[in-house]
Amino acid sequence: MKTKRKQYLINQFQLRDIKKCEDKNEYSIKVKKEHKPVQQSENFLFYMTYKITGRVPAADQSNPLNEIISITTGRGANADDKALLGKILNKGFFFKDKKYVFLDVSLSGSQHKTCKQYYVSEGIYKKLKERITLGKEPNITVPSKYLTAVALMTTSCNLFDIKDYIDQLDICVIDDLEYELENQHIVYNAPYKRTDEEEILYQSYMEALEAIKGYEKALAEGKKLAKNKEIPKRKKSNKETEKTINQWKEEGLRPKLEEAAKPISMVFAKGIYKWIPCYTKQQCERIPEERFVFPVDKITTEVEFKEEIKNVPINFADGTALMDINFAEKLGMKLEDQGGQLRFPYCKAFFNILELREWLKEEGVESITDLFGNPHPVDGIDILMTKSCFKAFLEKGETDYKDGCLFKDMDEYKDLIKNYDFDTFGIANYVHPPKSKYTKITYQMLLALKLKDVYMPMFAQDECDMINKVIKIYSDTGDVNWDDVKYILAFLNMLKDEKEEISFNEDDEDNEDHEIEANPILDDEAEEIDTNENWEEPIIQAIKINKNMVFDPYVRKKILQRIEHMINEMRLGKMYMPCNYYFATCHIPTLIHWAINRDTEIIKEMVPQNKVFMGKTKGMYVAMRNPVTSYSEVAKLEFIPDTCKWTEHLNHIIQFGEGLYMHRMNLDYDGDKICLFSIDRNYKEMEMTWLAWCKTIKVEDSNAYIYTHSKKEKDLNKINNQGTVTLLDFLQEALPQVNYADKDTVEPVAFTKEAVVSFILHADDKTGQITDKATQVENRMMAERKTKKYQDAIRYGKYLQGLQIDASKSGLPVEICKSFQYNFRKKPTFLYYKSGGSKWKYDNQYESPLDWFAEKLLSKYEKWIGEQINKNTRKRKDGEILKNTLALLENPNLDYAVIKEYEAKLEPEFLRYKDKFKKINERYKTIDKYSKADENKEQRKLKRREYSDLNKKTRERIYKLCPNPSVVAQVAVNYAYKYSKENSKDKKDLRWQDNWNFAWMFPEGILYHLWLNQDEDKIDVLGSDERCHYDFNLLDHYYIVKDDMKIYKQEEIEEISDIEVLEEYLAKEPANDLELTNVLCMGLDKGLTTDDIANRVYDGAVLQLKINDGYPQLWDATGKIIGIKHDILKQYEGSRIVIKKVYEDAKSTRTITVDCSIKAIA
To answer: Which domain of life is it from (predicted)?
Structure first.
């Protein structure tokens, strides 16, 4: 099902935008000139705000929802930031003379992580808070748990009108199905208390660690002196006696502790672009041979991991709901839509769409009793959900009702729903059938496998093979094989379709259930100089009209940028593999029997054990859930075809039977997704054809192509010499890891605004730290191939990750032990392409398969691709194999005088655009290309928005000066393709190399010109299906090639169908002769100089003017001589030209300048 979410405009600011008012103990926001509201998807909070104010949202969402402001603080808030945050959380602030106060019940799990709060106008605060809480607050509570329950109102979702049904709506909540799995072989964590001897050992570790910190602090002081230029520069003559830290390190020396803060001089290091300190040999000592070893074990972590056979508790249907088809239809859904994630006050669940009422009736059931003891007639039940889905249950004793519930029963809950006018129902996410067999995986998934260097290019085969096909038209030599245009068109269509799909389903940052499914299009790290956001469609149309446009510099640049982005993604392990994501739920027939009987003994007898179901799916699959923190989380799933008539339609939802799946994969069923990997592929039979490029370049492994293939064959034969090798063979066997204390919480406190503010100010999200350190552990394990050595550290990382995930609800602080912090303080090398910064700050001591693949193989591959697309194209143009595409972008029928007139009018606009474009780029030049830090993400968004606004305003201004698309496009092409690329002494300010954006802001005019210059031999691709006829496929996208001899009529091309060039703009037959002086002649055939044509171009020579490929040329009886560079000559094609004077160029033997006269044709 597809339903586009409404978008609201919200004023969003950063904490630094808050300023203290002069002479007042108040705070306000100063609006910057470039401030613009941000788009956020609809949610209950925004909807209820409109209800309270009595306003109706604008149809085009053009007006901001001024009653709400969001403030982002980022994850790196310092003490001053937190002090200011505390002030505005308690006191609020002013914006445009209106006071805003903190909405202290709107902090979701994701907002807790990104440090973002909502503030609402003081006048509606009480009403809005009462509405979204249904007037309920606990007496005492764990603040984070209650806040997360209420903040469901702020997560984005599609809202559906149910006001005509709200009186009949029946939600039946039943007890969770909880019991123990007996005699399970597991690993579990337990607190560990050090013995006296171990305590002494631990203190020795700490003393050594403090000594290291003291030494590093002294070095840092020395570096600071160099940074601040407080020490003299090193003299050239002292180069051998005063050396840097790294230079002395190469000799086995280091600065002494007492000398570390006293460098003798400094030198500028070009590689890292900073001043660094130097020391003399007398200031140094030998580097200690014994390296400090600080193990990550039970002594240093105080956590022991035990392998035992124990009983393990499970919540079989945690987060599961069942929705009757009759209610689903009121939300615009059908049985084949299967399910999704629901949102309603205090309700969060993944629901499966069933003929629920009919099923229960067939079971002979008349009513289901909810956990409050009240019966619900089955013919009226709309939603059946477990207790875990109803977030109104807090800790016991926190309210006066059952299990700390905020409501006496569901009748009270329903009365309050109606009382507070909740007349919409929310769907946060839908079940979507996979559109391809391929999905991008993550580096965490790769680190969970048994990896060797050679396996990385093997896993990348499908994606890189696609890239090689896309660039084939550029990488070939000699004549062009125009059939290869099909790969370019298919690639561009894939990019366009994926962008549309992502845009359609895009969740804003407040959707805490957003899955970590990599997409290649809208990722923040895609650094785009071009700001023509929807650039794919004009280029597709351009190539369809004239296939030669694949060689246009702008087109080549765009294709190269997208391929480079894909390569950077692959450096991070984000590569396409045969896998797909599916929502997870429990075995539904088991849940139905639980709803009817509430007898765990009956359940234990009938529940399928270690089996999973998904429609007719059958056989073994590998399963992972994002984010994977340990190889122990990878599961093998045995699918059994679903034979239950009530659930067999759920062919895109995984139903899990009884097993340790939830513990192994950190899984629950409120909307978690599982990535399923096919094991059909036999990697022994895979040919790594994409590596053929290695044969053409020099690489370290002498011949990487042969080397990699032979190594692959050797390694895979070790795995299985006779049979097949599938993904199953790359799994590492490991016991599931269980945390028995995962439901612990802090002690409840009185729920007040002060308690909420305290929670925010003391919140310390360590997700990023833990993820990076856990990644480094696995990366090192891969580099050394020593699983046992790093086993405890990996288990500890997984343990910490679980604590941090629960922290937003439990309120418990997460402490990372010092040994884990010390050993894994540097990130793996390949993460440079995620975090950015200086490469020397990464862990270069180890090289894992991911590091090798990112740094060595893909770097060379990226360089080779750039050479094929650019250098190889230039060679073929020089050899006149390719046409000049500039001529295709021009309208040969326009009058030269008209063009010059509008060039003069539009030149200030081009210069203005160029100036503003460069100022935007300068303003944001400090953004790290790869960094995913909140600050950099926000800066990228602002940069793209400013570029987009610049484009829009420039188009509007130019079309006011000249309303004709053809004339505008002609002038824009002249500036973007000609004048900005020339080294003109008179027009230096027009120079703008490698940027053609200005022309492509006017695609309608460009397409019109291409239509005028279209070639007859057309090629196009149409989407197809694997089950139908197709000519080729790229990554499971199937296409039919449509090539024929055809000339398009103007009305056949929608974008240009209404373009008309008035008579006044068209060229007239030249009536007068023309006199020109100092005209540049260039473009000699390869190998010729001006000496070779001296007897053909001379004073008094009479030649013929011809136009070839859009360029004027001088010809005589024997053929072409040289090109003559002047646009007005295009109107004199076929005329006689008399050379009056020839001036030689002292600096070049391939250009001349002439005075000439042109005789108009009578």
So the answer is: Bacteria
